[in-house]
Amino acid sequence: MTDALLEVAGLCAGYDATTVLYDVDLSVRPGEFSVVIGPNGHGKTTLLRSVSGLVPARAGTVSLAGESITRMTPERITGRGLVHIPQGDLLFPDMTVLENLMLGAFLCREGRAARNRRLDGVYDVFPRLAERSAQRARTLSGGERRMLALGRGLMADAKVLMIDEPSLGLAPVLVDEVYAQISRIHATGLTILLVEENFSRVRDIADRLTLIENGSVRAAGTVDEVLRDPAVAATYLGLES
């Protein structure tokens, strides 16, 4: 009996005639900050997309809280509490910040009071979103759009928040700010599965690393366990022994 909240076993997936993921195993425990790292184009984004139902699994299983979600639609998976924040944010540019946030709660079966409490929690983590609640999303800066994407994910009452490369396209100072906010989100007890190419960004905050190479798991474990392999440390993480 596994104690994982999210369990991926033998996952194979891809696009049309191309297979991208081969027999991927991944386990995320409740409250864990789990990070998937690896070179560009080796399957990290496809992994998140397959887990969230956007790319159908060709083989293997995905389970959330002991329930198989392998063949569920993305809407049902989100409704179960597995929330995917993709690359590029994918906001509704002509809707306001508040409207984008409230759409995050669209699948939640709860009353207005509960949604408003969650909105207050989002504004507590991202005060700038409260200041810009009436602004259209397209008028926000890159960092603010990233905050809005994260806030919309929090509005969905997530059990697991999957975040795909939050540093992508941001200036270093904004990356620091976004990661500080992600750390605040994790500190509330939320389970996070995050994809990141830059190991230095996650070295001090990851509970567990999974290294993907050519669509397969090259290494997995705690940061210290993964770093014990000098070839992995030097080749993939840019560290010298």
UniProtKB/TrEMBL annotation:
Family matches, as Gene3D superfamilies: P-loop containing nucleotide triphosphate hydrolases
Start and end residues of each ABC transporter domain: 6-239
SMART domains: AAA
CDD domains: ABC_TM1139_LivF_branched (cd03224)
GO biological process terms, semicolon-separated: L-amino acid transport
UniProt keyword list: Amino-acid transport, ATP-binding, Nucleotide-binding, Transport
Signal peptide: none
UniProt GO MF annotations: ATP binding; ATP hydrolysis activity; branched-chain amino acid transmembrane transporter activity
Pfam (any one): ABC_tran
Name assigned to this protein: ABC transporter ATP-binding protein
Organism this protein belongs to: Mycolicibacterium sediminis
Higher taxonomy: Bacteria, Bacillati, Actinomycetota, Actinomycetes, Mycobacteriales
